[in-house]
Amino acid sequence: MGKNIGIVAFAFGVPDTIRSNWLLAQIASEKARGYGVPVYTQLDIRIQPGIEVEHTPEGSGSPPPTLRIARGAVKWAQRKGFRALWIVAAKPHIWRAQRDVERAVRESGAQIEVYVLREMEEYSENYWYCPDSTQERVRSREAWNKRERILKFMPFFIYKRIAS
Q1: How far apart are CA 30 and CA 105, in angstroms?
Q2: What is residue 2's predicted lDDT score, i.e. its pLDDT?
Q3: Which end of the chain offers a freer environment for a tag, N or C, measured as fewer CB atoms within 10 Å?
Q4: How far apart (Å, rounded) are the C-alpha atoms in residues 45 and 10?
Q5: Is the dihedral of CA 141, 143, 144, 145 positive or negative?
Q6: Which residues contact 106 (CB under 8 A, 6 or more apart)?
C-alpha cells in the first residue's frame, strides 16, 4: 500500500516547538510509520527519526506559502511515482491546504488523488491557535480569520500571484 502514497504536512506557525506543530508532526509521523510512507513537509514539522522525509525549500525565518509547499509536494510525489497524497494540516488550515494541493495536482497534469487525514478533526479549532508562535496570524482565531477571509474570497488567479 505505502509504495504509492506520500504524506504532505503543513506547519501552523513557527517554531517547531509550539503545540500545533508538535501535534501535526506526531500525526504525520504515526501515519508514516504505520503505513511505511514518506513525508514532505516544512522545517517546523519535526518528523520522528527513521521516517523518510523531504523538506520544502525555505529561507531562514521565512516559511513558504501554502501554494508553494503544495506545488513542491506534487513535484515530489511525481518523482516518487505516488498515486495519492495524504494531507496533514491544522483544522483551520485544512480547507486551503487541500485546495492548494488539488490545484497543484491540476496544474501539473498529474494523476494524484488528494485526501485529508481526519485525525486533526478530533481537536477543536481553538486548540490549534498558539499565542507563543512567532507568526502573529496563528496566535488567535481572530488574527487567523482576518487574513483567511481575504484569502478565501480572493480569485485564485490573484492568490496564485501572491502565493508563488
Answers
A1: 25
A2: 58
A3: N
A4: 8
A5: positive
A6: none
Q: Which fold has domain 2-162?
A: Rossmann fold (3.40.50)
Question: What cell was used for 156?
Answer: 485564485
Three cell numbers, residue 18: 509550539
What are the residue ranges spanned by the domains of the chain?
2-162
Asked if residues 60 and 28 have their Cβ atoms less than 8 Å apart, the reply is no
Give ∠ CA 3-8-12 in degrees, rounded to 5: 160
Helix, strand, coil percentages (3-state) for the chain, rounded to 5, are 50, 15, 35
Q: Of 60, 58, 82, 56, give the one whose Cα is nearest residue 70.
A: 56
